[in-house]
Amino acid sequence: MMAKKIVLGLVSLTACLYASHSWANTSQSLQQSQITKFNQIYKSYGQTWLATYKSLLLKNISPGVGAKPLASANQMINDIILNFYQKINANKRPVLVKNRYTFPAFSDFEYVNNVCRIAMSNAKQMARLEKSNFVAKKFCEYTTFYHGLFVADFNRDKVHSLNARASRKFFNNQQWRNLQRGQYGFKFQLLQSRDLLATRVGKYVSK
User: Fold this and answer.
1) Looking at the whole model, is its pTM more than 0.90?
2) How many CB atoms within 10 Å of residue 14?
3) Which of 62, 174, 203, 206 lies 20 to 30 Å (CA to CA) from residue 40?
């Protein structure tokens, strides 16, 4: 019920999204296993992620509304982007596999984004997704928008580093030092103000 209320509050701002996804691959179709996993992930994280999307809407960071400067670069990084990663990670502990840290909830977010991209490129595929999840269309519209804004424009090292910072409480001091030295599968890179300039999120940064 909570997820339904959140989604209904988002509906009015989503009309322009289909036209914006020119990168979508219209030749792909969803496998039933993908739909099943999508629904499992939604059951686990849907309400948390929708609440995160709503908080960004209230800051005027939303599809259907032109991007306008609203925060300094430091505020954008530390108060908005990092908070987004914390919410997407949903308080899940990072997992060390073969000396490489992964972030389970974020991996699920990436999976959902890929499923959504396929569904949004083809009305038939979206209908299949909506048949098993009535909020799928709106959920996908916002998921792909915020993934594009806060994930897609950064390189993988920066994305992993943001996930690590968002999950800092799960690392002891030695693990954190090792992580900063690049010993867990990625080069630790703090997001800098200049990194925002060439990205979509840079349009929300005050000069």
Assistant:
1) no
2) 18
3) 62
